[in-house]
């Protein structure tokens, strides 16, 4: 990946992103062509750069479903890093990101269960999960509850 693009993502500088695009109009397409790659969206998710991440989601929504070399999507990373606002913004744009399966078939909901509900995201993830795939995600949620009795959650089935 272009080093200037990587730096723009790490620092969250949207203006620098557009400078990189002006110098090389195909820079994002080239990243998108690689099957497993740490995209600028992955980097922004790691760093908690919400504005940059949202701009990247507008430009290249496909980056949100890409897995990096560790088998993680940007939403997986946001949850693991504890970036609650970032995770919520991802879900505002696309609730279909919740069932994206990464390494060992784990979804971002699995990672949320691993860290517990410290981020207060479980209800939001479950709601999105039920909208996207009621049965599959409900099974995952129930497994999480059985594995960790400390999760306190409620949701309505409307």
Automatic annotation (TrEMBL):
Keywords of the record: ANK repeat
Transmembrane segments: none
ANK repeats: 70-91
Pfam families: Ank_2
Name used for this protein in its record: Uncharacterized protein
């Amino acid at each position: 990946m272009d080093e200037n693009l990587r730096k723009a993502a790490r620092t969250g500088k949207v203006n620098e992103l557009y400078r990189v695009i002006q110098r090389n109009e195909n820079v994002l397409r080239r990243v998108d062509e690689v099957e497993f790659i740490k995209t600028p969206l992955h980097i922004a998710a790691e760093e908690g750069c919400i504005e940059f991440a949202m701009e990247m989601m507008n430009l290249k929504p496909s980056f949100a479903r890409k897995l990096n070399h560790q088998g993680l999507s940007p939403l997986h990373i946001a949850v693991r890093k504890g970036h609650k606002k970032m995770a919520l913004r991802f879900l505002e744009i696309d609730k279909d990101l919740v069932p994206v399966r990464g390494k060992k078939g784990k979804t971002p909901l699995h990672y949320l269960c691993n860290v517990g509900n410290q981020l207060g995201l479980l209800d939001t993830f479950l709601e999105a999960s039920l909208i996207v795939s009621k049965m599959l995600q409900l099974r995952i949620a129930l497994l999480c509850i059985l594995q960790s009795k400390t999760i306190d959650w409620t949701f309505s089935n409307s």
